[in-house]
């Protein structure tokens, strides 16, 4: 009886260790983790990259949650968990925000302009327009991500997100992205 009790206990212990290891590997939801990043820095840097991107577009362009010609508004940007299950409490977070490009001219031309800007910065760019697609993604050396996509009706959207950071490095995780980002 003692031997089978020990086997069951050993099996349960092994299962607990493997579950914890699997959870640790999936807590960032596939996004990179920056242990020294803070919530304030992740938000400020993401917004800065979005501002610098919109500055490459024609004069008067802005990023806006609400597009005057569309019924679809973008949700308020803010902090979100990096994990993809409800099993983690107080796990890593990231900052993300999405916008419509308003008064930025032709969506296809805007997308090409953004790709060129990200390449000028030395970012890694995945340009799906080369194969006839309608999107592109740029990733900085410090793992910030910007994505631009043309909707089915030709409107351009731009989203940005930070790498994950430890929950403990967050100060105001209820902060939201601005509703509008104007050209600097």
Overview of the molecule:
With 184 residues, this protein is an alpha+beta fold. It folds into 2 domains: 1-27; 31-182, TBP-like (2-Layer Sandwich), CATH 3.30.2030. It is built from 3 helices and 8 strands, in the order H-H-E-E-E-H-E-E-E-E-E. The chain has helices at residues 2-26, 39-54, 107-120, and strands at 62-64, 78-81, 93-102, 124-127, 135-139, 145-150, 156-161, 180-182. Strands 1, 2, 3, 4, 5, 6, 7 and 8 form an 8-stranded antiparallel β-sheet that branches. Strand 6 and strand 7 form a beta hairpin. This is Lipoprotein. Keywords: Signal. It comes from Rhodococcus sovatensis. Residues 1-24 form the signal peptide.
Brief synopsis:
By secondary structure, the protein is of the alpha+beta class.
Based on the model shown, name its key terms.
eight-stranded antiparallel β-sheet, 184 residues, Lipoprotein, 2 domains, 30% helix, disordered N terminus, TBP-like, globular, alpha+beta, signal
């Amino acid at each position: 009886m003692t031997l089978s009790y020990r086997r069951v206990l050993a099996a349960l212990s092994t299962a607990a260790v493997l579950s914890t290891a699997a959870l640790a590997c999936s807590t960032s939801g596939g996004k990179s983790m920056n242990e020294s990043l803070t919530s304030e820095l992740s938000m400020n840097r993401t917004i800065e990259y979005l501002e610098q991107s919109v500055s490459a577009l024609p004069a008067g362009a802005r990023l806006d949650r609400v597009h005057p010609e569309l019924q679809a508004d973008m949700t308020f940007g803010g902090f979100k968990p990096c994990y993809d299950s409800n099993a983690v409490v107080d796990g890593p977070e990231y900052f993300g925000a999405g916008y419509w490009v308003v008064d930025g001219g032709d969506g296809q031309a805007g997308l090409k302009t953004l790709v060129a800007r990200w390449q000028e910065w030395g970012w890694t760019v995945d340009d799906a327009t080369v194969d006839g697609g309608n999107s592109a993604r740029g990733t900085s050396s410090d793992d910030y991500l910007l994505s631009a996509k043309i909707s089915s009706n030709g409107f351009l959207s731009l989203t940005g997100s930070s790498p994950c950071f430890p929950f403990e490095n967050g100060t105001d995780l209820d902060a939201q992205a601005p509703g509008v980002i104007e050209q600097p």
